[in-house]
Amino acid sequence: MIMATSADVSYHPGPVNNLHFLIYYSIAWASWMLEVTNLSCVRGTRRLFRDLNFSAAAGELVELRGPNGSGKTSLLRILCGLSSPASGEVCWQGKNIRALAEQYLGNVAYLAHQNGLKDELSAFENLRMSCGVAGRSLAEAEAIDLLTRVGLADRLYLPARVLSAGQRRRLALARLLSLKCSLWLLDEVLTSLDDAAMQLARQFINDHLEDNGIAIIATHQDLNLSADRVRRIQLAGV
Amino acid sequence: MFAWVVWRDLILAWRRRTDVLATFFFFIIVVSLFPLGVGPEPQLLRTIAPGVVWVAALLASMLALGRTFGNDYQDGTLEQLLLTPQPLFLIVLAKVLAQWIVSELPLVLVAPVLGMQFGLSQNTLWIMTLSLLLGTPVLSLIGSIGAALTLGLRAANVLVALLVLPLYIPVLIFGAGAIESTVNGLEPQAYLLLLGATLVLALAFAPWATSAALRISVE
Predict the structure, then answer these.
(1) What percent of chain A has pLDDT over 70?
(2) How many beta-carbon pairs below 8 A join chains A and B?
(3) What is the pLDDT of residue B141?
(4) How much is the average pLDDT of A6-14?
(5) Which residue of A has its CA nearest to B82?
(6) Is B18 on the interface with A (CB under 8 A)?
(7) Distance (Å, rounded) from C-alpha B156 to C-alpha B74?
């Protein structure tokens, strides 16, 4: 049996009586952006986690921990709406994300295990195209500025095919920044980054949280973030 | 957004133009083989021309189907497309349009030249081009459903053929019928109207079906 350890997971203070319950939920609706209730996930015949409850308010970081195959990626995919949960629901500002559909997706940036880059396009084109198809205009200068920030200034017009794994990850980070979304869902964001780039990624996440963004990050490495509101969720695979 | 998706796919196709050229030359070679194989009897060639051109177009479009979503699926950009805050059917429509421009439009343009090998009259060549112009978008639209359904499966190419070819039959009948009636000196109007109706129907329903299929395949 695989399930989330409830002590770590539950962020809810736990309503004691009806009055508490009412107060608790009215505050919750006002301040919580993302709320996950009784979420269960089944892949094939395996139950990855069940009855997962947590929520995240603006400026909060949720760190997903757990061994390989414990459902971190599955959880992120459910949170962005790519997969549907076996039971339970995910709400954004009090409304189910299924019902919100595109309205919700406008707030979400998902950095998956795969970088989602086109090998045939240059770094610059990759960035501009991904913004273009997302319906956001990205000025040329802004794109160059972003790529400079992630340290790809001298690789702007090289096809993504010739970039190294770390450079491709940096490019994916630039895309994440360019989308200007309030909810970041990051899967192993530090993979194949060198020390400098890891520092950079931490800086980006910190800035994002200070801007009242939310970040949900699946990771094996320590993020060492100075953010004061970090919540840790341990998914326990057995 | 729509224009960005089309533009993106056109650039990608240009950078991988060998794939596109393969479809194009496949069509040319298949159509050209028939006059060589059947012999230079003009009456016979005129009789088989409509069927040969349309069947070749069908098979060539099958070859291109896997690319509509396959590459995007493999590098993870399809997920990113699904996560854009845009209606999915518009994205699908844009991708199908780009696929049609890249893989089908060249076939339509080269068909009159190939038709000359079959001794077709000028009028018939026009009708053939027109029927292909109306019919090939239907092939792309219906094909996109099959391509989306078989994403990530092992024998995807074979499966797509089994799924989609039967659905192509109406287009084949109306398309070849239009050319045939012109060859026989009849009015092709009815067939062309039917092709147009099929196109409207496919435009209305195929993008939705493809969107649903994509969501299932990516999950």
Answers:
(1) 84
(2) 77
(3) 94
(4) 42
(5) A82
(6) no
(7) 13
